[in-house]
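Researcher: Good morning. I'm working through a list of sequences from a screen, and I'd like to move beyond sequence-only analysis. For each chain I'm collecting a predicted structure so we can compare shapes side by side. This is the next one on the list. No need for commentary yet; just the structure.
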Amino acid sequence: MLQRFYRLFRAPGVGHCGFNSSGPVPVDPFGALVKWVEQGVAPETLLASGGSAAPKTGRTRPLCPYPQTAIYNGSGDPNDANSFHCGGNLERQDVVCKDVLTRYKHEVNGNLDFKGTGLDPEDCGVHEDDNHDDQEAQNSRD
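Model: Good morning. Structure tokens for this chain:
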């Protein structure tokens, strides 16, 4: 099982190294890694805090190991990590299809690039004719 030796914690809204991010930034990811390696205690979550979108009182969130995500408990302060639990599955087809990228410089209306994703465009509701006009425009720009 991959989770025995590998964990991926997504931090939405956090730029590279967390500088000028809008989302909460992981507080001590290196400390969690050291604890895992030296004491054998794998992180179940990582605490994240702050971000430019946070209210002045601060915001914390749990970062969950992929494919889980933070889910609000339905009560409690929505700016407090204790009001969330990890769950769900980001590997659902409707979520994964939204992660398919377009070619560089054509992000807004460009073709979806399914190459190497393992996804069938038809499973994501994309039909061969859907990208035809975009492909002609792409060829005329090249």
